[in-house]
Specification:
2 strands, 70% helix, globular, mainly alpha, two-stranded antiparallel sheet, 274 residues, 1% strand
């Protein structure tokens, strides 16, 4: 059952990567955290490191999902270069900082930060103008210098700390620049790549300094078995979701995006119930 659930939810990460720009973190982190606690218990070394393992494995899965989804959106013509660079470079720099910071705090701190950030993001999307509504003839504005530099570093640091890729910040940002949901979520994938790469390398590099021996399937905090099953499922999810690129009505797309964030936040508030 453990393996079937991982494969199924891997499929869901593929779907959300293509349609909503989520590289996998918003599905993988709550799922793997809860499954590790349930299967190993809170006193086991793996159970005690469950949040770190979930975040680290999430960044690894994101590499595959973000690469494949980015290629699909490139073919669909949804990617706009000047919104991707140099913002992506600053996100990568912040990602190194965020991954390092996550190693020095407890799993509970990361979990509460995850919940708090989701709550703030949902409220921002609901109550600040520009996310739920989009005018088709609106001319998109370019990103400002501060949004690219300071904003990029902040996005990278927060996203890698939480293991969520960054789309939860880049999609609302690009949406308020005047982009459609299809365009904004499309660019969430390539902008998640710096987070995924920096985070994965940092978490794997911690293999020699982890407090516990987590077992043969682990490199640092990355669970290789979970990564393999989630990735296999995600490949199927990407195939299922690709025909829907650009076909979801804009307002419905935005509403479902917020709804998914709400579901994930709810799942993390009660983490020990399976």
């Amino acid at each position: 059952m453990f393996y079937l659930l991982l494969t199924f939810f891997g499929c869901m990460t593929g779907v959300t990567a293509v349609l909503f720009g989520f590289g996998g973190g918003f599905v993988v982190v709550p799922l793997l955290y809860r499954m590790l606690l349930a299967s190993h218990g809170a006193d086991d070394p793996i159970g005690q490191s469950a949040m770190h393992i979930a975040v680290a494995t999430s960044t690894c899965v994101m590499i595959v999902n973000a690469l494949i989804a980015s290629e699909k959106h490139y073919r669909a013509g949804n990617l706009i270069r000047h919104y991707l660079w140099p913002l992506g470079g600053y996100i990568g720099a912040g990602a190194v900082v965020g991954a390092g910071a996550a190693m020095w705090v407890s799993g509970e701190v990361i979990r509460y930060a995850f919940i708090a950030y989701l709550g703030a993001t949902i409220a921002d999307c609901l109550f600040r103008r520009g996310f739920l509504t989009h005018t088709s003839n609106e001319i998109p504005r370019p990103l400002g210098t501060a949004e690219v530099s300071a904003g990029g570093v902040g996005i990278g640091a927060i996203a890698t700390f939480l293991g969520v890729g960054g789309s939860v910040m880049t999609v609302p940002l690009l949406r308020r620049c005047g982009l459609s949901m299809s365009q904004a979520t499309s660019m969430g994938n390539p902008l998640s790549l710096p987070v995924a790469l920096a985070g994965t390398l940092t978490y794997m590099a911690m293999a020699g300094v982890t407090e516990f021996d987590l077992g043969a399937w682990f490199v640092g905090y990355v669970d290789l078995l979970a990564f393999a099953l989630l990735t296999l499922g995600s490949l199927l999810g990407v195939r299922l979701a690709t025909p829907w690129i650009g076909k979801i009505p804009d307002r419905l797309h935005a509403q479902v995006y917020i709804g998914l964030l709400g579901l994930v936040m709810a799942s993390m508030i009660v983490p020990n119930v399976m």
